[in-house]
């Protein structure tokens, strides 16, 4: 186990100890950040980033997903959110929805869960990644969960049992994070190759 993996394991002991609600990945990651903030130093939190994965069509394929009912273990999400712990020499992914290890090296995660866009159908291409520093995510993200209510007023998936997350400036800005429009002022928006290059992952 590398030194960075040891540090990360001290912060987040395992998926069974984490706050988790199916289909609320953005809140699961927010809760992971909160946990790191409460248990560790600001220096450790500064090594973490929250990553929204989506595209203009809001249709992204990810493999090795627990929610999959297909043989290839693929799910087409409108967006997905993961936590990165990046410290030399390896970047780790914390994803409570994957069947891969927790944490998982980004190189392994990218190869197994994301794959190559050259094999995607056209509607799934141009994956984009919004990378937001964990501290910024904790202080700016907000969701009233209205995106999880159907036109009939029913929950698409049962919500978490804790109150909705609010920031000092908003009660609902989740669309600004899901959007891959770089003009929304949350972190940086990268293509798949730019994302991998940023974290020095070469497939």
UniProtKB/TrEMBL annotation:
Function per UniProt: Mediates the side-chain deamidation of N-terminal glutamine residues to glutamate, an important step in N-end rule pathway of protein degradation. Conversion of the resulting N-terminal glutamine to glutamate renders the protein susceptible to arginylation, polyubiquitination and degradation as specified by the N-end rule. Does not act on substrates with internal or C-terminal glutamine and does not act on non-glutamine residues in any position.
Reactions this protein catalyses: N-terminal L-glutaminyl-[protein] + H2O = N-terminal L-glutamyl-[protein] + NH4(+)
Enzyme class: hydrolase
Enzyme Commission code: 3.5.1.122
Cellular component aspect of the GO annotation: cytosol; nucleus
Source species: Lymnaea stagnalis
Family per similarity comment: Belongs to the NTAQ1 family.
Gene Ontology molecular functions: protein-N-terminal asparagine amidohydrolase activity; protein-N-terminal glutamine amidohydrolase activity
Coiled coil: none
Entry-linked Pfam families: Nt_Gln_amidase (PF09764)
Quaternary context: Monomer.
Keywords: Hydrolase
Domain Protein N-terminal glutamine amidohydrolase alpha beta roll: 20-199
Official protein name in the record: Protein N-terminal glutamine amidohydrolase
